Amino acid sequence: KGRVFSGARPTGRQHLGNYLGAMLNYVALQEDYDCIYCIVDVHALTTLETTLDLRQNTYEMALDWLAVGIRPEESIVFVQSHVPQVMELHTYLSMVTPLGKLTDLPTFKEKAREQPHNVNYGLVGYPVLMTADIVLYKADLVPVGVDQAPHLEFARETVRSFNHRYNTQVLIEPQMKVTQVPKVIGIDGQQKMSKSLNNHIELAATPEETRQRVMQMVTDPQRIRRSDPGNPDVCNVFSMHKIFSSPEQVEMVNTECRRAGIGCVDCKKLFAENLNHHLQPFRQRREEISQNPDFVWDVLKDGAKRASQIAEATMVEVRQAIGLP
Ligand code: TYM
Q1: Nearest residue to 132 via CA among 309, 315, 302
Q2: Are residues 129 and 171 located together in one domain of the fold?
Q3: What ipTM does the predicted assembly reach?
Q4: Which Gene Ontology molecular-function terms are recorded (predicted)?
């Protein structure tokens, strides 16, 4: 069996972007791979102004993962900082990383623009730590949204540099795996869905909250009046219908929107209804698991124990490959 690794920052309740872009693959890949899923709290520190919510956000995210169908009896679910070998590997990898390559990455430039007052050393090294996550567990495959593509390419290059520099084969070049919807647009209809932009829809929201959020979604900007014909091809609500509605409904929306037969309000109501229906089993399962909060922490503790064994085995090889005395 090959090995899968993926991580996500502890941002609390997960949204449709995380779900469609990554979590669906987390679940599906369990059939054919040994999977490791990591809550990357150290990565979160690169951007957080306060850590007050870190514990709660870690818990909420783990709960979402378990509710969506990650099976902790098979897969490893753990918190990054619980297995500190990753920080050691990060340091070694940093020695084969040209600084300019990090500062040239589009993901870095974006963050540096967002937090000009806090362009810290850890933020620059973010992709190095992410590479360490992946290669510490010798992952073959990394399920992520397409926004992570530059990081994955960086990871592959870093593995090649390391193996070349120390004339070894210990580190494995990972492949990236995206879902059918690798980039989900937020309710603003423009930018990628993300919690920091507050344009997201949470999986664990109540049906009523979900409806309200959906009602705020931006549709075809050219369609101003109800009587104007719309263009589904440029409408984010329509792209959601294609995922969550039946083929007949998609066909109906497609035709009726173009001839102003259905208005945006009714179109959104239909989507909200289908989304709530789709998420119902997830929400119920989440409710059940949360009856016992200790369960989630026990899963994470057990996960860290299992992850540590793999991590230490890799580090023994890495230290030797480098030639540390
Ligand atoms: P993060 O925490 O931003 O997001 C977690 C996962 O959700 C995906 N995602 C999306 N996919 C499609 N559309 C969206 N709007 C959207 N928003 C989020 C992300 O692509 C990601 O797969 N750097 C990573 C965390 C990380 C990691 C790793 C991932 C650290 N180490 C090792 C894989 C392997 C991040 O910040 O993801």
Answers
A1: 315
A2: yes
A3: 0.99
A4: ATP binding; tryptophan-tRNA ligase activity
Straight-line distance from the first to the last Cα atom of the chain, in angstroms, rounded to the nearest whole number: 34
pTM here? Answer: 0.97
Over residues 3-26, the pLDDT tens digits come to: 999 999 999 999 999 999 999 999
Q: Any idea what the CATH number is for the domain that residue 173 is in?
A: 3.40.50.620
Are 77 and 98 within one domain? yes
Residue 181 Cα: closest atom of ligand 1: 12
Tell me: do 151 and 262 sit in the same domain: no
Domain count for the chain: 2
- pLDDT over 90 (residue 55): yes
Distance 6 CA to ligand 1 centre (A): 8
Q: Which domain holds residue 75?
A: 2-183+292-322
pLDDT tens-place string over residues 277-309: 999 999 999 999 999 989 999 999 999 999 999
Tell me if 3 CB under 6 Å of ligand 1.
no
